[in-house]
Sequence to fold (818 residues):
Amino acid sequence: MPSHQGAEALSASGRSSEKLSLPTLQSKMKSDPDGYESELILLYSQFKSSLELFQQQAALNFTSISGIGSDPSVAKDLGDRALILAHVTPFYPNHLADFPKQLAGLLSSASRSLPSGLRCHVAQSLILLSNRQMIDIEETLALFMDLQTLGDKPLRKLAFSHVIHSIKRMNQKHKNDAKNRKLQNIVFAMLQQDDEAKAKRALTTLCELHRRKLWFDDRTANAIATACFHSSPRIMIAALSFLLDYEKIEDDDDSDASSGEDDPNPQAPHVVINKQAIYNAHHKGTVSSKKKKQAKLQRAMRSMKRQQRLSSENVSLNNYSPLNHLKDAQGFVEKLFSRLQTCNERFEVRMMMLKVIARTVGLHRLILLNFYHFIEKYIQPHQRDVTSLLAAAVQACHDMVPPDAVEPLFRKIVNQFVHDRSRPEAIAVGLNVIREICLRMPLLMTEDLLQDLALYKKSHEKAVSIAARSLITLFREVCPALLIKKDRGRPTDPKARPKAYGEVNVSSNVPGVELLQEDDNNEEDISDAERSSSNDSDDDHDNEVDVASDDEENQLYGDITGSEDDELEDHKGAQNEDGDNIIDSDDSDVSDNDDDDDDYGKEEEEEEEMEAENEDVNEATNCSSKTSDANVRDSETRGRGSKAKKRKLSDFDGQLLAADSSLRALKRLAGVTMGQTSPNSTDGILSNEDFQRIRELKAKKDANDALVKHGLRKGIPSSDQLSTKRVDPSKLEAHVKKKMSKEERLALVRAGREDRGKYQARTSVKQKKTGGLSNRQKERKKNLPMAAKKAKVARSQLEKKKKQQRAGKQFRGRKAWK
Fold:
């Protein structure tokens, strides 16, 4: 039919003998636009007449059997002419200037009354014109959004893909913000309508554009979040699911995306960049080979930098959520929470709303005190999806919430999950939840509760013991003082404590100067440890000298010690009578044993050393006076040995070792003066070297934080990192063995039988044997042992006889010595 009409249309131009079809005419019009201008005018006039006829029939609601509305040939002819005119429109822009508007008017006015085939043909023609930039996407966006609401599935897919790819093509080179804003206003207006079909298609388009990072701005994210308050429950569920499952969406484009062409082949071998390769590229080979090696290294370096950049972008986007761009996060959370309290939706929908609220509270560190009391009534071990509820409760906790508001929820988790009659799975989950909550709010934990929970480390259940040990490990870093001495281990900071509620660190000095002070304190601790080790070695040497001169000291002070030992019993009787000579309780416990005296003397020596370390400067400056005082006291004690009642043994030891202690004090003073800092650091003025050290310490701290963030080094993440981090409910059930269903057990059994052959009886296996003789058949043909020996002897004799016969017939040659 189209070929006959095309031939009739060409009769006026003198080409009636040429039987041209519409595709052939289309190719010839493209190759020679001026030569086929008359044919174009005829085709366009026929299209306009058919279009006017169709509009009149639609206006009169013509539905007869022979009418246009039911005649497929007329609809097909109109669609074919629309397609051919759309193909040749770029070659005749003046003649077909009104053609795109006519197609758009036809679709907008009679899209529901058009047959499905004709509607698809007209939509394809309009898409072709839009791709050739004959009509702007701004004029057709509302039309294609309305076409998606029709019940035609192929047309809905066609219109949706056209909208997405048109906006992608528009933002390919650079983003046109003004035009994007106009298009967003059209889609946002559709999203706010009460019509569920239009609002759903608008939300689907916004979500897809946001996922493809085409409209990756605050306006789109806020529009998607606003859809959570739509009157239609389906729109609300769709918006909530997108906000929750955004991180699970893979950023993969369609098959026609051009990003795959630019990416390098991941299977291509990379150059190993090491010192040897760099040396070979610059020092070995000819000039041309060096250039090739250097170019290869440069390509490898560019590839590595690109991969690092992409990986860093992926890491930064892993924790991204549209909830980050909320303009009024507090109002959004309060409005959604009020709807959650009054809605009668099913449990899954309420769980989605609760997760979105918890995620927003944790992400923006909001305060919603009624939310914790609302979750508290669902905290039961037998509750449906209890791990998701607990994950939401953990996500909503942060350091800006008052601990008193979360304490009832925390106590209920402890009481409901962690007790002796609870199942091991529930105990493990409860301990993991407690650890995550205490990581965000350590002020909730008390000393008695922590010590009780730490006892679960001895549990025979692996999941429970691991969870308890992880809780102990956390508080070794956060607050070791709450643990008993056995559980503290070797903490990095024994004096660590959590910040009080509302406590912040206000910088009142040069940024980073605290790092410099901490580094100086660490160096002082190290130097003190070294000095103490050196002092211990000096003490050991002094002790050796003391042991060598022990006999002389006993001779010198034998009378004094003997007299004091005799006066002990007299003093016990006269203690109550004489009030001036009151004796300490420690003195009355001194025994007459020489070994006890030595032990006590050692303890007193340690006390003297501690006092000497605390008063180094005073001892050093007054060392001469101390020695003289020691000599005076020594002489006085010798002179009034009979008059004194009882003195401490430490007095005599101190008199004896006064000179040695003063010498050690001088050594310590010399070490302190050698290790003192510059006066610039003490008077608050920092030098260039100090600023350089601050930069180095900052870089080291940032590197450590990065390692902790990526899990390469253990550490406590900051509050900002915890707020952006998502809590995975499956990690709360780590190491928990779940009971398998019957289907899972059967699948596991079948998986173990894959390598095993089919069961067969032994007789059937023997009957199917196709090889040689079996071992039993071979045994029947074996000779007896004696017969075998005789056969072997006979065989050897026969071989020897044959050898002799062969040797007699051969000429062996004449020997030289005969």
